[in-house]
Amino acid sequence: MDKKTAKDRIEHLKKAIGRYRHERLVLNKESISPEAEDALKKELFDLEQEFPEFVTPDSPTQRVGGQPLKQFKKVRHEERMLSFNDAFSKEDVNDWLERLSNFLGRKINGPFYAELKIDGLAIELVYENGALVQGSTRGDGEIGEDVTQNLKTVEAVPLKLNPSGNTLYPNHLVVRGEVFLNRKEFDAINREQIKKGLKPYANPRNVAAGSIRQLNPKITAGRKLDSFQYDIVVKMGQKKHSEEHEILHNLGFRINENNKICATINDVFEFHEYWNKHREKLPYEIDGIVIVADDNSVYDSAGVIGKAPRAAIAYKFSPKEATTIVEDIKVQIGRTGTGTPVAVMRPVNVGGVTIAHATLHNADEIKRLGLKIGDTVIVSRAGDVIPQVTKVLKELRNGKEKEFRMPSHCPVDGAKMVRDGVAWRCSNPRCGARHREALYHFVSRKAFDIRGLGPKIIDRFLDEGLISDAADIFEIKEGDIATLEQFGEKSAGKIVKEIETKKKVTLNRFIFSLGILHVGEETASLLAQKVSGIKYPSSAKASAGRQVSRPKELEKFFKNLSIEDLQEIPDIGPKVAESIHSWFGESRNVKLLEKLDDAGIVIKSDKRHGTSDRLKGKTFVITGSLESMPRDNAKEKIRQLGGDVSESVSKKTSYVVVGSEPGSKYEKAKELGVKTINEKELLEFLK
């Protein structure tokens, strides 16, 4: 991304996030989910890391929260209440650790204190001589709201300290923690809402925040809020963050006993993975973990960047909602010829999987959303269902977005598209079936040989709008598959891994995979030998030493061949030559080759042709089954020795190899007087 584009995107993100935060924190109104807002903040943070010259004091990454509500007395915090920068992946965490190590000038890899990140409201508690004298919200980090009377209604917040053992408290003590609502109380509150004919609350965090901001403490008391404390602001001799939790416990505060000291960052990852899988068993909601350098000297030396500590970070769980950009809208033709518009998105992690596609169902749905190509959108995967584009963030538009229109002609066969209710279909009734068969052929054993991608799965991908042509197969992400019913992350991973391993293919297999009319396996092999005369650039070398080509180069090669040139190839007559010439002349086929090229397909020049010229000038036809080897292996060995293999018997055929249960080719050989040999005689040729 260039600087001008980055600056423009940063400005749009700052304005939008500022608006959403103000509505949520000051007006108690939620326009988008906290998860979607987090995704936008993460995008802004990453851009500011890449282009630090565009960081300004008013950036949302430099602030903690909105201004305090006017109805409450303002409270200035003794020390600024910080928030955490977010990480959403192991890569993000490792990047944070690298930045921390670079800043301190030494490698930091533990120990860490890992805490469950409660999805609640941050608070500060002040005690004088062991008695609670003030409780406040975080506010903007510098100034919060005095909600002492409300916090006194929370049983988990001690009104007077009750130290145990040898732990003594100072005359002046400041601690910080979180107020939250557990699942049971949240469900009970919503049942009451429904009974009253009112709309149920969206999530426990909103109820907790709203309860603390109630002017009437009796309402707060009725909500049965809970609280954990996790930080001591004053010095009490603590050298480790984990010691602060012990001190808090000894003073009578409620701490989260699920928190853990982790020796290394890998231990942190295991902690994160465990709670990501088991969080539903907790009586309260968490949205991730907080990773803190356990050594307070490391934490203090690292200091603060913006309004977040350098030596701590929030490692969020995979969100059910995220934001991304719709880079294109493609129309996929399904099995019945129905055209389904599909959003091609910048890859984004939603619900634990990375997705790049989301169905838009039909043209009416695009109109309802007001979606344009280039828009920033919210993608939702509530309940682990198929990802849906749920909202367009129009305020992030920069004027370069494009309107989408359904194509007038089918992208598969060029026939006219016709409207049928809310759907658009190809007017050719055979389109869907032919398209399906072409894709079956493309992944078949003698073509790309993509194991596990059989007809049923191809049909499913077509129905869900994941693929419109063969090239789309190589752009599928694990998350696109894992979100489908009857699929899981394990099976999705296997399919994507298998697809990735088949991006390199020999010339003969590639040509055969294209499904050109009248071009079978043998003709594809003959064409591959013709193509092997291409002069490749010296830089285009495969790791195995074979020369390689790309689909675009192949298209250029055949484009320069006339029908007459093609007919000079053995066994290619006028009809086959016309079919090949016509295929490479059609624009949609050229586009497919370009897409395959862009997808990273590498075509290997099969150097097995011509390793010897012992059988040069001899043409073989094999009929029936061979005992010593599969027929395909026998054909390859013939080619390695410079011979040709044909599917049909003619007067030009040198030998017909007769195996067990031969077919009509044997009778044709006798009719034409072509010499026949058995398997033993063939093996003599191949020695």
Helix-strand layout with pairing:
Layout: H1 3-25, H2 34-50, E1 74-76, E2 86-87, H3 90-104, E3 112-118, E4 121-128, E5 131-137, E6 143-145, H4 148-151, E7 172-180, H5 183-195, H6 204-212, H7 217-221, E8 226-232, H8 241-250, E9 260-262, H9 265-278, E10 286-293, H10 296-302, E11 304-305, E12 308-309, E13 312-316, E14 321-333, E15 338-350, E16 353-359, H11 363-369, E17 376-380, E18 388-392, E19 417-420, E20 423-426, H12 431-443, H13 455-463, H14 478-482, H15 489-501, E21 504-506, H16 507-513, H17 521-531, E22 548-549, H18 551-559, H19 563-567, H20 574-585, H21 587-598, E23 602-604, E24 619-623, H22 631-640, E25 644-645, E26 655-658, H23 664-672, E27 676-677, H24 679-686
Parallel strand pairs: 2-13, 21-23, 24-25, 24-26, 26-27
Antiparallel strand pairs: 1-6, 3-9, 3-10, 4-5, 4-7, 7-8, 10-13, 11-12, 14-15, 14-17, 15-16, 15-20, 17-18, 19-20, 22-23
CATH superfamily of the largest domain: DNA ligase/mRNA capping enzyme
CATH class of the largest domain: Alpha Beta
Our count of domains comes out at 5
Classify the secondary structure makeup into a structural class. Answer: alpha+beta
Shape: elongated
Kindly describe this structure:
There is one protein chain. The protein is an alpha+beta fold. Strands 14, 15, 16, 17, 18, 19 and 20 form a seven-stranded antiparallel sheet that branches. Helices cover about 35% and strands about 20% of the residues. About 40% of the residues are buried. It is built from 24 helices and 27 strands. The longest helix is centred in the first third of the chain and has 23 residues, at about 5-25. Mean pLDDT is about 85; it is low at about 535-550. The protein has five domains: about 5-60, Helix hairpin bin (Helix Hairpins), CATH 1.10.287; about 75-315, 2-Layer Sandwich (D-amino Acid Aminotransferase, Chain A, domain 1); about 320-485, Beta Barrel (OB fold (Dihydrolipoamide Acetyltransferase, E2P)), CATH 2.40.50; about 505-605, DNA polymerase, domain 1, CATH 1.10.150; about 620-685, BRCT domain (Rossmann fold), CATH 3.40.50. The two termini are about 60 Å apart.
